[in-house]
Task: structure prediction
Amino acid sequence: MQEHKTVVLGVIGADVHAVGNRILDYALTQAGFKVVNIGVLAKQEEFINAAIETAADAIWVSSLYGHGEIDCRGLREKCQEAGIGRIIIYVGGNLVVGKQDWEKVKETFLAMGFDRVYPPGTLPEEAIADLRRDLGLS
Result:
């Protein structure tokens, strides 16, 4: 029997963009992951609590309304305080307001403790392949 790795998935902050979240949920599920989808309008603590309750292997944070930097700041530190500081955390979407240099945006989120950062338009398969590598599945 194949072991299913668990991913907590949600849209952070006051963001209500659900379509991308559902696409990721479907893609992850089809790829064999157990998905705990906490939906939209999710607080950092909801990601952390879901990860603890399900012994998740990764947290995937989505943000499309441009306030991702504000909503995501401190998430890694809160994970550390909760005892899951080494959990894999990915973030993707339209993370900042306006058109900004993507490399700078990526560097900002990596410095905030995210393991991988994806720009708008990233295909789910790319992030899933990265997750498989990060989890030692491929």
In short: The chain has a mean pLDDT of 95. The helical segments are 19-30, 44-54, 68-72, 75-81, 102-111, 124-134.
